[in-house]
Amino acid sequence: MTAVAHTASAHADSTGAGSGAGVLLQAEGLHKVYGTTVALDGADFRINAGEVVAVMGPSGSGKSTLLHCLAGIVPPDSGTVTYRDQQVSSMSDAQRSALRRGDFGFVFQFGQLVPELTCLENAALPMRLAGAGRKDAEAGAKKWLERLEVDDVRHHRPGQVSGGQGQRVAIARALAGNPRVVFADEPTGALDSLNGERVMELLTQAARETQAAVVLVTHESRVAAYSDREVVVRDGKARDMTMLAGAV
Ligand SMILES: Nc1ncnc2c1ncn2[C@@H]1O[C@H](COP(=O)(O)OP(=O)(O)OP(=O)(O)O)[C@@H](O)[C@H]1O
């Protein structure tokens, strides 16, 4: 095993970065290997409630793998992921799915909306999957579509809306279930810069109001500028740049 950059973790408790509401999600010493490729090599990470953390770094450095391990989508080979007092890394597939449905929201580069459903039905889908009735789920989803300024396209299907509108619908969908953590992997990657900035404004505002934490994978510094803190992943290790800067 390679030595881990623990600088960030060593300072995070005392500085209480972000809302100060305490660590919500934490990873320690994550290792993940695909064949002969080392995707994560002892990565540490932590995020507080209400905090927006940008995960940056070169292509292939392990950013998405880190996000997938944090979200319980991919189990790490070793290391731990702790959400509140639960060990995500030792949960069964079914437990991890339940956690993702109940507590996490997801936004990806290409919204990944279900093409057969309307924008409203898409935004309501996580709540439906979590057991809400159609009426309640759609009422909750409509509120978020209004908030994301795409209520007017709620009866359209994803193929009938622009990329920016589709991405806003995807964000509404991620937020509608009142997630405690939103995982956003290059959420503005497919958008022009104006749309990208508006999407980031809406995402971060909404997250701050609901005290959701946002793990934001991006390679764009103008997107990372919306975060409270930046973590750089390089060669499968994560370094907290804000903490490092503060320590100088
Ligand atoms: N499912 C997989 N199977 C095989 N190799 C994988 C898989 N997922 C990731 N990798 C490899 O692991 C390494 C890290 O990938 P990852 O997608 O986490 O990087 P990234 O920093 O998100 O890259 P990018 O910025 O290009 O999206 C890469 O070398 C990648 O090819």
Number of helices: 9
Number of strands: 10
Parts with pLDDT < 50 across at least 5 consecutive residues:
1-20
Q: What order do the SSEs take from the amino end to the carboxyl end, as H and E?
A: HEEEHEEHEHHHEHEHEEH
Bound ligands: adenosine-5'-triphosphate
- Give the CA-based shape: globular
Provide the β-strand percentage band: 15-25%
Helix content bin: 25-40%
Whole-number mean pLDDT: 86
CATH architecture: 3-Layer(aba) Sandwich
Q: Can you identify the CATH class?
A: Alpha Beta
Could you tell me the CATH topology label: Rossmann fold
Distance between the termini: 28 Å
Largest sheet: 6 strands, mixed
Radius of gyration: 18 Å
Domain ABC transporter: 25-248
InterPro entries: AAA+_ATPase (IPR003593), ABC_transporter-like_ATP-bd (IPR003439), ABC_transpr_LolD-like (IPR015854), MacB-like_ATP-bd (IPR017911), P-loop_NTPase (IPR027417)
Organism: Streptomyces iconiensis
Keywords: ATP-binding, Nucleotide-binding, Transport
Written account of the structure:
- With 248 residues, this protein is α/β, with parallel strands linked by helices.
- The chain has a single domain, classed as P-loop containing nucleotide triphosphate hydrolases (Rossmann fold).
- 39% of the residues lie in helices and 25% in strands.
- It has nine helices and ten strands.
- The protein has a six-stranded mixed sheet.
- A hairpin with a 2-residue loop joins strand 1 (23-34) and strand 2 (37-48).
- Helix 4 packs parallel to helix 6 (163-176).
- The longest helix is centred in the C-terminal third of the chain and has 18 residues, at 193-210.
- Adenosine-5'-triphosphate binds at residues 34, 37, 39, 57, 59-65, 219.
- GO terms for molecular function: ATP binding.
- Pfam families: ABC_tran.
- It comes from Streptomyces iconiensis.
- This is ABC transporter ATP-binding protein.
